[in-house]
Amino acid sequence: MDEPQTWRELLGKVTSNPYERQRIADAIGINAITLTRWVLHKSNPRQDNLRPLLETLPTYREQFIELISREYPDFLETSIVEDIPPEIPSAFYARVLHAHTTSPQLLRAATIRILILQQILGHLDPFEAGLAVIIAQCVPPSQGKIRSLRITQGRGTPPWERHIEYQTLFLGAESQAGQAILSGHRIVIQSKQQKLRAFPTHHVQMEESTVAYPILRADRVAGCLCLSSTQANYFTHIHLDLIRRYADLMVFAFEHDEFYSLCNIELGIMPAQSVQQQILAHFQRRVTEYVLHAMQSRTPLTRPKAEQIVWKELEGELLSLA
After folding, report:
1. Which domains, and CATH codes, for the chain?
2. Which residue in 59, 64, 184, 220 has the fewest CB atoms around it within 10 Å?
């Protein structure tokens, strides 16, 4: 059977069973005859009736969104406005500024990042439909150029884990985040098929749409703010405008020396996550070995400093694999 070309044809297919038609009508709060009139194009629904239709038929949600948007081009934007405020609350700007001015220097960056990541989840995914937000930070260079990014912090709603930073990963020019850094502009992917074509190395099965937004201060970059949704075509103009503002706000979460000139970005190629995991699994052991060796030789070495050394070693090993 040919695929429905309009949302009315799809609705007619779904409601061909009278019991199902009545169930949908009851869920939306309308008469079953009204559904039939929509199918036959004898009447037009109010857009506030179309939202419950999507919720009543989750299996067909993405198909309905695509077809409804052909007849009502502003449908998705209007729906999003109803779900999320189009502005970052002014009170949240005040919270970030307060954290920036009062937090101890060693805790300031992590505190602000967590504040912003949690705010993004609550703002852009209020019903926890499935959203992940991560920070991929430029790995400080041993000399000269920035060769990779590393996931340093992240938060998510199911099916993602709440704390994503425990699944650290190096990203290079083969990644969506890497290309956003290299171009200095956001990159938006709205479907799994598009992601597989453009960035197959780091595709995640539950991802449908993704955004990578560089964290910029003038012509210097600290990393990338990356979002992944379980829903295709999730990121509307409203979402993207909000993400841009959150990326601007994320500038407060980095020290001055953590920003690098775009001219000094020369990302290499990183292997897939499955390959990286075999090497990254030994991270803590290697850090401990550095600390113990320093103690035995009576050379001062803090654990954070040892971690930086090991991260650089791991970056080099992974780059050499590619």
Report:
1. 7-83 (1.10.260), 90-264 (3.30.450.40), 273-321 (no CATH)
2. 59
